């Protein structure tokens, strides 16, 4: 378990870059397809990632008072 935690802390930026790349490519592919099913799936994935994020879509921090 300690090895997993060490690996995650050492490669956290790589993991985030891969996730961002996959979502970016998936977004392009979804926009090229005519169906709406894949749009809905990608929307749910982005919603989950957004819920785990510390930054809102508008650039403000989660929980920051306006």
Written description of the protein model:
The protein is mostly helical and 66 residues long. The protein has a domain at 18-55. 70% of the residues lie in helices and 0% in strands. 0% of the residues are buried. The model has no long low-confidence stretch (mean pLDDT 84).
Topology:
Layout: H1 2-10, H2 12-32, H3 37-52
Helix pairs in contact: 2-3
Largest sheet: none
Question: What percentage of the residues does DSSP assign to strands (E)?
Answer: under 5%
Number of E strands: 0
Total helices: the number is 3
Ranges where pLDDT stays below 50 over 5 or more residues in a row are none
User: Helix-strand pattern, N to C?
Assistant: HHH
Give the class from helix and strand content and strand pairing. Answer: mainly alpha
């Amino acid at each position: 378990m300690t090895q997993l935690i060490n690996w995650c802390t050492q490669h956290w930026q790589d993991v985030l870059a891969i996730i961002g790349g996959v979502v970016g490519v998936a977004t392009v592919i979804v926009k090229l397809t005519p169906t709406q099913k894949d749009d809905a799936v990608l929307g749910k994935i982005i919603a989950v990632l957004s819920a785990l994020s510390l930054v809102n879509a508008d650039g403000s921090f989660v929980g920051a008072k306006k």
